[in-house]
Amino acid sequence: MHIEELHQYCLGKTGVTEELPFGPDTLVFKVVGKVFLLVGLDQINQLSFNVKCDPVNAIELRQQYEQTVVPGYHMNKKHWNTVYANRELDDNILKKLIDHSYDLVVKALPKKMKAEIEKFN
């Protein structure tokens, strides 16, 4: 997976916007204003991104894919993982991790905000 593919995949999800709230080097993807993925734009050799994850699943992923999934860099390590693309996981699994993060954020939204997402469908 390359950053362009990651970018297009995230923007293809319902209700997603992109922002640069932390400066020009960190692209943040949000659904109805809530962050579900962060990626550094200054990466040259190795693409990595932060995604939200169920805490139990996060630990399992870190144990199973020690070279690919690590506690979230600059994030709450209980709920966020940093995932390195193009290592142990193929693009389909990377997309599933992105989907999981998106779904966790949507699931936690209040009903009114969930209704905002439905407007996009």
Automatic annotation (TrEMBL):
Origin organism of this chain? Answer: Sphingobacterium pedocola
What is the name of the protein in this document? MmcQ-like protein
Highest rank taxon of the organism: Bacteria
Q: Which Gene3D superfamilies does this chain map to?
A: 3.90.1150.30
